[in-house]
Write a sequence for this structure.
């Protein structure tokens, strides 16, 4: 009884603490971004956007498509992991919709609510969906740990003076990330306990071979996201540095709970790269990245979602008629 009372009394404090922290970031991020942008020459930014050659725009769209397909493979790994038999042609558009909504809104909408709704409508049971979802999350962040660990430990990102972490601290964080990723793979290979029950859902460790595939696929997706930005930057941009800044901005976006990391991404890129890349070129690349990787896929995802809902409704109607007959 005492344990229940204590956990119940803690929850309101935690809930209000998260709300206040989120409110703080919603106020602080726009203010900091304004301070970064107040002296920007927007005509130069517009000129940089207009100067992109068609081949570069086409290449950026190609990288974005490849990234979305890579993310869709997370759930294809989940299909193999759980053994469910939904056709691949149904899984890929479903994951595309979830990813686009996840990026632009938040993980609860795209990652959880839509995924469970759409999979359920296709006949998948909740425990299987939960296992697919958990494997997808682990794949994403396992790839992040490997990639960020290498980038940070190698010293490819230089932090401004005065940052509390410091460049030495960032390298130590990178080594810790690599260690955490290695521990997961070793657990998958040698752990005698293979399953845990969390909130009435059974989570099972995959094989070590699948864990390595998870790491590779997750790292590939993060690499492609950075590649898109790098393509839109001037030739002097250092790809590993761009990758490192994207990885830092992504985790900052998760911490701040701001949808799409709006403002967070821009502020961190400006802070870390404005001494290496002209501000107008940097802003043009970030605007292009937002348009190609976030906004356009979201508009397509809305239409795709409506089609999936209509198709699922038609399938349920057909099944009901068959059962009645």
């Amino acid at each position: 009884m005492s344990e229940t009372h204590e956990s119940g009394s803690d929850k309101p404090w935690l809930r209000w603490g998260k709300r206040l922290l989120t409110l703080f970031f919603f106020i602080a991020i726009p203010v900091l971004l304004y301070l970064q942008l107040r002296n920007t020459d927007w005509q130069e930014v517009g000129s940089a956007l207009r100067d992109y050659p068609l081949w570069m725009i086409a290449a950026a769209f190609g990288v974005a498509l490849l990234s979305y397909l890579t993310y869709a493979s997370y759930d294809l790994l989940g299909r193999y992991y759980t053994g469910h038999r939904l056709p691949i042609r149904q899984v890929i558009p479903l994951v595309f919709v979830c990813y686009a909504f996840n990026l632009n809104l938040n993980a609860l909408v795209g990652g959880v609510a839509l995924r469970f709704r759409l999979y359920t409508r296709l006949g998948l049971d909740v425990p299987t969906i939960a296992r697919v979802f958990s494997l997808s999350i682990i794949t994403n962040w396992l790839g992040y740990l490997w990639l960020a660990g290498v980038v940070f430990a190698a010293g490819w990102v230089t932090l401004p003076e005065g940052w509390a972490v410091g460049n030495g601290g960032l390298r130590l964080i990178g080594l810790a990330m690599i260690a955490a990723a290695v521990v997961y793979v070793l657990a998958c290979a040698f752990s005698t306990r293979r399953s845990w029950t969390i909130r009435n859902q059974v989570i099972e460790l995959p094989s070590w071979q699948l864990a390595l595939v998870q790491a590779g696929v997750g790292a590939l997706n993060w690499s492609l996201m950075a590649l898109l930005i790098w393509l839109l930057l001037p030739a002097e941009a250092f790809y590993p540095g761009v990758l490192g800044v994207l990885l830092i901005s992504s985790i900052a976006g998760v911490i701040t709970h701001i949808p799409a990391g709006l403002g967070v991404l821009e502020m961190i890129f400006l802070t870390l790269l404005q001494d290496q890349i002209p501000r107008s070129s940097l802003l043009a690349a970030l605007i292009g990245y937002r348009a190609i990787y976030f906004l356009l896929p979201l508009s397509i995802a809305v239409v795709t979602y409506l089609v999936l809902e209509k198709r699922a409704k038609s399938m349920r109607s057909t099944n009901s008629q068959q059962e009645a007959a």
